[in-house]
Amino acid sequence: MHYLARDPDRRFDPRQLDPRLRSVISLAYPYTAPAPPAFQWPDDLRGRIASYALGPDYHDRVLAAARTVAEAIATAKPGALIRCYVDTGPVLEREWAAESRLGWFGRNTNLLNVHHGSYFFLSEIFTDLEFEAVDRPYREHCGRCRRCLDLCPTNALAEGYLIEPRRCISYLTIEHRGPIPMELRSGLGNWIFGCDICQEVCPWNESSGPCEPELAPALTDLMAMDVEGFRRRYGKSAVKRAKRGGLLRNAAVALGNSKNPAAVDALVSAMTHDPEALVRSHCAWALGEIADARSKAALEQARSREPEQSVLTEIGRALEQRAGTCAFDGRNQHFTGDEQLR
Ligand code: B12
Questions:
Q1: Which of 50, 178, 274, 318 is 20 to 30 A from 199, alpha carbon to alpha carbon?
Q2: Does the Cβ of 42 fall within 6 Å of ligand 1?
């Protein structure tokens, strides 16, 4: 996310963008968030997608809504300078929204308000119009609650309203390119695009009802998806940002986390045929996590024909992992040297 470090002056002061600007109008656009799914993970091999990314790409929806407001302003004040933003420009959206009293800056680092929790998008209209400022006191309602901090599986949140994005599942599954750091893979669980844990556990958030299974894609189907299939399924959704390779990488990690032997065939097939080394290497890792005779045989076979060093390294590691694993009830049992002696 190096783009965040670009143009810091413009980020902090929109007048650097255009000196005529005088006001920021902050808009909040609520979205619905289904409850954690009813399906039985890891028996049912489905991946979770953050609720903001279910349905059509929010950028289009939110920008269209902001433009409707902008047009109303333009009609009332012909000739006014008006610019709309959603996520796209160098704009600190939560800070403007907090200044506008749309909510408070929550411990999970999202903006929260008492009506919608944190399930709303932000957008802004920058304008040269001046308004009479009506200030209201800033109140925060997190109190001593620290559920989001305690329940984040990768410990991405810290005291002081801070996030370490490089540990955040949302960052890892959407923005991060390349391999998922080894020590964070298990924390991803079955999240394959974004994550809602720090929102789901927040007492201010309410779900809109049960998560239908079709909102949680079958992971083994995803592993077989080619570029065209990805474009057809996710071309109009925010999920396209992860790109096909990123999404399949995440799905492979989720399948590895499931430790469910029903994932083996799809993983072996993708490790053998997928055109992207990133996907093949994460399939190798996942096979190392699943105690099943087929995964060991497939890893050994792949080792003899894999051209990419990065994948070979993962295959080697996975085979070592398999050597320290014994099949028991179809689930992995990991031993340290001491435990094996007992
Ligand atoms: C980069 C980014 C991310 C990154 C990094 C997140 C981050 N905290 O910076 C990642 C990929 C991890 C991410 C994840 C998510 N994101 Co995001 N993300 C953004 C984006 C594009 C930029 C954020 C930014 O500028 N960061 C820069 C750094 C410098 O900010 P910072 O680390 O938070 O620190 C600064 C401020 O926060 C401030 N600050 C720190 N502490 C405090 C305390 C108080 C009281 C105040 C006033 C200020 C303050 O000072 C710091 C220095 O300036 C914004 C859109 C935008 N343009 O604003 C959306 C945005 C913040 N994301 C959004 C969403 C929905 C999410 C997710 C929920 C998506 C998901 N379900 O997976 C998760 C939530 C994860 C989390 N707990 O934050 C929404 C949030 C809506 C809301 N209600 O708050 C936004 C506003 C997009 C939008 N247009 O709606 N996101």
A1: 178
A2: no
Report if residue 30 sits inside a domain. yes
- Answer yes or no: is 196 within a domain: no
The domain that contains 238 carries what CATH number? 1.25.10.10
Peptide bond into 42 cis (omega under 30): yes
In this prediction the pTM is 0.92
Structural domain boundaries, residue 118: 2-40+51-127
Among 109, 127, 145, residue at a domain's last position: 127
**What tens digit of pLDDT does each residue of 205-248 get?**
988 777 777 789 999 999 999 999 999 999 999 999 999 999 99
Is any ligand 1 atom within 6 A of the Cβ of residue 302?
Answer: no
Residue 13 placed within a domain:
yes
> Is there a contact between 211 and 36 (Cβ–Cβ < 8 Å)?
yes
- Decide which of 127, 157, 175 is a domain's last residue: 127
Select from 4, 54, 84, 109 the residue to mutate for testing ligand 1; criterion: most ligand atoms less than 8 Å from CB.
109
User: What are the pLDDT digits (tens) for 81-109?
Assistant: 999 999 877 789 999 999 999 999 999 99
Query: Strand 111-112 and strand 23-30: pairing?
Result: unpaired
Cβ atoms of 145 and 108 within 8 Å: the answer is no
- C-beta of 7 in contact with ligand 1 (< 6 A): no
Q: How many structural domains comprise the chain?
A: 2
